[in-house]
Amino acid sequence: MEQQKNSAALGMWLFLATEIMFFGGMFCAYLIYRVWYYNEFASGSRSLNLKVGTANTVVLICSSLTVALAVRAAQMGKRRLLVMLLSMTMLLGLVFLGVKGYEWYEKYEEHHIPGYGFNVSDIASDYPQLHIDPRHSMVFFSLYFAMTGMHAIHMIIGVGLFAWLTFLAWRGHYGPEYYTPIENAGLYWHFVDIVWIYLFPLLYLIDRKPL
Amino acid sequence: MSEHVLSSKLYYAIWILLLILTVVTALVATVDLGPFNTIVALAIASCKAVVVVLFFMHVKYTSERLTKMVIFSAIFFFLILIALSMSDYATRHLL
User: Fold this and answer.
1) Which domain holds residue A150?
2) How many structural domains are present in chain A?
3) What is the ipTM of this complex?
4) Which residue from B11, B44, B77 is facing A21, i.e. has the nearest CB?
């Protein structure tokens, strides 16, 4: 039994290793362009909503706690607690996605979404000393939407996964002898949390100091 | 994987630590530390990631060494990706 459980976790970690390389490509692109277009990345980063971003990080960390406690509830065979914690995780995931949607809507209203309506004259006039090139700003916002978008897709998959697990847990599928799906979905959720742990400083924080 | 169940107090302690680090990193970001802003932000993020992996993802308590090897090799290959790409782009003006 112990070996079966270890193998299941190992398989999940192999999948997460591929996910690290998947997000790694985008992180690498972000680092290179940040060195090239420093001014546009600094000013673009400062146009993001820091308070909302921090609040969303807190929401995600709380959801990681509920997942960890859910795995524990499954290990101890507490079915009602497990169902409650799984649905709380799902709910926190939806809150995160809602807040993310609000942030994207803010960017839409400011015409900061790359495309035909893209306009960063507001950022350029805020920092005249930086000589902002709008094409370089577009690179920042393209990466911002690609990275947060890919993260959001992972969150949507996670919420779907937890909806399914909540249903099965409610039906009594899981107990101390068998909780592998809960454990593996938990590993997936924590991984998505870790991606955000790095996205948050890279996108929102590293260029916040007085320019 | 953890056959023995961890205390819920440990999970709450980790949760509080993660929240404190989140607030600290958000506050430190507005202070001008020169080139150290990036380093501090990424160091705090890495601390948070390590804590999540070790405790929330039970890697500290697993008896499976292969899992740890997979994690190390994944991080190692990611660092190769970053290091080789960055050394290329950082030295192009020298040619």
Assistant:
1) 2-204
2) 1
3) 0.92
4) B77
